């Protein structure tokens, strides 16, 4: 009898342990909400719905996009690979360089890995450009509702979409790194969108996301990727959001409207400096007010989606990821849009709310992570086999407080906006960020102690006592570039050249 009792207890313990170990291998609903061009530092009191996700989940306080540009950042997010590995380096606007804007055929992504077992929906901006377009694949099991779907609906309603030429300006842009073209890009100009919020892009996407939740195939878990456009320009904004934030209530960061002596003059060849340096600190006040109005709109739409998840009984059991594809300079360093390596452009909000009952060991993680880590995290949790060549790492050991802070470097890459021409590489490691800005035959270096100087006001590269640290970070960056078959290289004597060419700026 005693032996049978011991066996019974052992069997019970085994079953209990098996149940616990299998918790992260369940296949829950997965909800990914991605904003476009959202600064990490604007989340707070004015974003109660997004903040609630952060408070109920795990906050990654130092999360970086792999690239400060839509297409390559999203390619890295959905594949777990850095841009050199996806081969998506730019937005594929210029025909001559369009081949550098697409993820190579055959690379698995979140949709292809999960749409067999999940009821997969994509709602919103579709900038995961692949050589074989996902949304046009007749065998795709994902339901695609994109900006083209929105455009067709607006045409049927007889209403004009937000935006237009008045919100844009001509910008010079190198093509293939050899000759200059001109292309229209958004400016900070703002105006009210008279058709109203009911016709606004993100209200349409929010409505469709709620429909996806309600009309899902209930025989499978739901996979919903909701890709909002806000707060990306154009700033053609419906009321009440156009006027909801008075400019006199905006508290500008210190570095808005400031051009620092140590920042790269090569940025003046890029959209960031070419447009951003036109505006004074006072002029940025109104632009910030309009941007924050779009952030408020975004938060309200997120709240509508969360409410629908709760009504359908999915909220408590779902993994919910909130993030952005990149940030927005919004006048910091006198720069506009993204397309550069400063914190405002490359650091993004990242919050993951795990299903109720998942053992979370840490609710705030300040270790630097990358958006390439999100896919392996979702695969690890659900038990879907993780492709063996991913650059990203599962964040679950960090969340469960099982992995020490190993000082893993995070890499950032930019190769131009609509064509190949402006190039930047960066590495974040041990609290420092090294930036190499390359244009033509020039290389400009910037080194910032981002933990002590988060607004990156002081370029430490001009201080010769940092030469060893710069050499170490350059070696780390070169190794990454070599391992990922980067089409660029950084000269071995780059620091001596930098000091010789630019020391007058110090």
CATH architecture classification: 3-Layer(aba) Sandwich
Give me the secondary-structure category. Answer: alpha/beta
The side-by-side strand order for the widest beta sheet comes to 5-4-9-1-11-13-2-14
- The CATH topology is what? Alkaline Phosphatase, subunit A
**CATH class category name:** Alpha Beta
Strand content: 15-25%
Distance, first to last CA: 84 Å
How many separate structural domains? 1
Record field, number of beta strands: 19
- Which homologous superfamily in CATH is the superfamily? Alkaline Phosphatase, subunit A
Mind telling me the C-alpha Rg? 23 Å
Shape: globular
Low-confidence stretches: 1-24
The main β sheet shows up as: 8 strands, mixed
Give a quick precis of the structure.
With 506 residues, the protein is an alpha/beta fold. Helix content is 30%, strand content 18%. The chain has 14 helices and 19 strands.
């Amino acid at each position: 009898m005693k032996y049978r009792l011991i066996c019974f207890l052992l069997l019970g313990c085994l079953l209990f342990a098996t149940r616990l170990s299998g918790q992260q291998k369940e296949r829950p609903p997965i909800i990914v909400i991605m904003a476009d061009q959202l600064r990490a530092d604007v989340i707070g009191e004015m974003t109660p719905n997004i903040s609630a996700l952060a408070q109920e989940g795990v906050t990654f306080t130092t999360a970086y996009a792999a690239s400060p540009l839509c297409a390559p950042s999203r390619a890295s997010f959905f594949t777990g690979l850095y841009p050199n590995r996806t081969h998506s380096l730019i937005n594929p606007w210029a025909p001559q360089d369009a081949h550098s804007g697409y993820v190579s055929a055959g690379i698995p992504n979140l949709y292809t890995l999960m749409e067999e077992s999940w009821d997969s929906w994509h709602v919103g901006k579709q900038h995961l450009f692949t050589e074989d377009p996902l949304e046009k694949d007749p065998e795709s099991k994902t339901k695609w509702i994109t900006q083209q779907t929105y455009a067709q609906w607006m045409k049927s309603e007889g209403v004009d979409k937000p935006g237009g030429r008045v919100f844009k300006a001509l910008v010079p842009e190198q093509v293939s790194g050899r000759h200059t073209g001109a292309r229209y890009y958004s400016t900070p100009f703002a105006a009210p969108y008279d058709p109203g919020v009911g016709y606004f892009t993100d209200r349409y996407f929010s409505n469709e996301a709620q429909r996806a939740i309600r009309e899902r195939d209930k025989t499978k878990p739901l996979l919903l990727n909701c890709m909002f456009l806000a707060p990306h320009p154009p700033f053609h904004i419906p009321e009440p959001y156009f006027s909801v934030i008075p400019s006199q209530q905006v508290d500008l960061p210190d570095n808005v409207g400031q051009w620092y002596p140590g920042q790269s003059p090569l940025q003046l060849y890029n959209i960031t400096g070419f447009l951003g340096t036109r505006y004074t600190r006072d002029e940025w006040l109104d632009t910030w007010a309009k941007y924050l109005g779009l952030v408020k709109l975004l938060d309200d739409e997120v709240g509508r989606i969360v409410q629908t998840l709760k009504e359908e009984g999915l909220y408590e059991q779902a993994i919910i990821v909130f993030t952005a594809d990149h940030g927005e300079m919004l006048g910091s360093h006198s720069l506009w849009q993204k397309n550069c390596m400063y914190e405002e452009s490359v650091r993004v909000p990242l919050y993951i709310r795990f299903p109720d009952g998942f053992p979370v060991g840490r609710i705030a993680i300040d270790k630097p992570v990358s958006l390439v880590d999100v896919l392996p995290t979702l695969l690890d949790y659900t038990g879907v086999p993780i492709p063996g060549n991913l650059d990203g790492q599962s964040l679950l050991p960090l969340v469960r407080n099982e992995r020490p802070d190993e000082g893993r470097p995070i890499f950032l890459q930019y190769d131009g906006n609509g064509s190949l021409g402006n190039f930047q590489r960066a590495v974040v490691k041990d609290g420092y960020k090294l930036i190499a800005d390359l244009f033509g035959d020039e290389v400009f270096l910037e080194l910032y102690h981002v933990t002590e100087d988060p607004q990156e006001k002081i370029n430490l590269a001009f201080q010769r006592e940092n030469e060893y640290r710069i050499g170490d970070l350059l070696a780390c960056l070169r190794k990454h570039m070599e391992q990922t078959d980067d089409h660029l290289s950084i000269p071995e004597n780059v620091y001596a050249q930098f000091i010789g060419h630019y020391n007058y700026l110090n």
